Amino acid sequence: MPSLKLLAYLAVHPTELRSIIQWKVWHQPVHERDESKEGPEVKECFRLLNLTSRSFAAVIQELHPELLMPVTLFYLILRGLDTIEDDMTISIPKKEPLLREFWKIVDDTEWNFDGNGPNEKDRELLVKFDVVTKEYARIKPEYRVIITDITKKMGNGMADYILNSEHNEKGVDTIKDYELYCHYVAGLVGEGLTRLFVEAKLATPALLERPELMESMGQFLQQTNIIRDIREDHDDKRYFWPREIWSKYVDKLPDIFLPENKEKALQCQSEMILNAIRRADECLYYMAGVSEQSVFNFVAIPQTMAIATLELCFQNYTMFQRNIKITKGHACELMMQSTQNLQLVCEIFRKYARKIHHKNNPRDPLFLDISIACGKIEKFIETLYPTQNARTLKVTDASGTTQAPLSPEAEKQKKKEEEEARWDTVYIGLAVFTTIGLITLAMVGLAWMLGARFDLAFEQLLAGNLRPPENAAVIARSAGASLRAARSTVSAHNEL
Where in the cell is it found (predicted)? Predict the structure, then answer.
């Protein structure tokens, strides 16, 4: 049941309401789960998926049947790993071996874990983790090899970070450290998914030869989340913005939230967003290598959400005051557009790149760099889908013969002729209306000369009588009789 706040918002934003209705009514999944063929453990896995994921659950369940369970289990396993890493109630001596050995745990069909704190939101997943591992044992060995490898890399990376006391106390230091952290929590996910897509023959193997593309897919999403969640992370005393960036603007990262540092906060934010959007073109390049529609939808929706979120955050000081996110109606609009084809996804990226460029502040030290980054996105899109205009399209005449594009002089002459044709149309219209006006005046003048009583007509109009009275015929006959009687009286008088 939608909240009253949401209903009130949609009441004054009808276009967003329209997008929600369109998504709910018209969206047709490429593939749908056949629950009649699912056992209780499979259904429990999907229940846990819906429980732990707000954004990915729906698109995962619309994946190609070949990838449905592997990707679902991949998500649940990494979510379980992340739940251990995020839980501050678990001591580091206990947490580290769990993270490093988690890749082995996934092969244990009896393993459960109830050591999370009572307030850990995804605690139930680990309590019932044996359901996940039992289904994991049933998928193809090729998929298990990929998932195990990524789980091992991610677990070790997380363990390294929790042992880094400087990171725990002061947060991320350099941009390199920042991107390494994003690699462990998101870049590896991009690598694992790409390997699954290629193994299922639903994406081109060439993607594996360009690891920077799959890395950018994960980096773009994770950096967007870190940028957007700055206020929430600050409230939790966690800091992921790298010192190498924020130290240019404030002495201590918490100072960025002070009202007197508003301009510096926005400048720091600009540099963080610049670091993210520089990867946008590689994300588009990656999506061009995905051949199956449901997989394309799966990778495209988060990316378009990310570019829209960056535009929402850019030059928006509200993100330092509270957590912000795109609205549900806006999200539905993006999902409708993102589940079509790459060209529409490119148009979304172009749209938000232009919005970021439009909001770019000339007083910002990175004004030029941000403008260049936005231009780079547009330039890349132009290489994929060139703009069609008179200079790029060949001209076909009435006989079907293809002609070369017009020269600048010929194009100028053509525009001049078109302009003259438009004025000819205007002149003809004026002549027609002038003629009609003169004829109307002549007819009114003739009627007046013949005795038409326009004064009486105006009186009736002013009185609101737009139609003749219903007894007009009776009145006319009575008036005629009175006139004849008057004429008889005059004749009799003359005879006397």
Answer: Membrane
Is 354 a catalytic site residue? no
477 is catalytic: no
**Any catalytic annotation for residue 228?**
yes
Q: What is the pLDDT of residue 414?
A: 75
Give the pTM. 0.76
Distance CA(290)–CA(84), nearest Å, equals 33
Query: What are the residue boundaries of the structural domains of the chain, listed by start?
Result: 12-384, 416-489
Residues 435-462 as b or e (16 or more Cβ within 10 Å = b): eeeeeeeeeeeeeeeeeeeeeeeeeeee
pLDDT at 407: 62
Q: What was the pLDDT predicted at 496?
A: 44
> Out of 79, 195, 228, 279, which one is annotated catalytic?
228
Per the rule left: phi > 0, alpha: psi between -120 and 50, beta: everything else, 412 is: alpha
Catalytic residue among 47, 238, 391, 484: 238
Place of tokens 């009486």: 456
* 374 φ, ψ (degrees, to nearest 5): -65, -40
Among candidate residues 355, 341, 354, the one with its CA nearest the CA of residue 385: 341
Interacting residues of 296 by C-beta distance below 8 A, sequence separation 6+:
287, 290, 341, 342
Separation of alpha carbons 190 and 140, rounded Å: 20
46 catalytic per annotation: no
Residue 400, classed as helix, strand or coil, is coil
Candidate list 129, 136, 161, 181, residue with the active-site label: 181
Q: Which CATH code is given to the segment(s) 12-384?
A: 1.10.600.10
245, two tokens = 């960036």
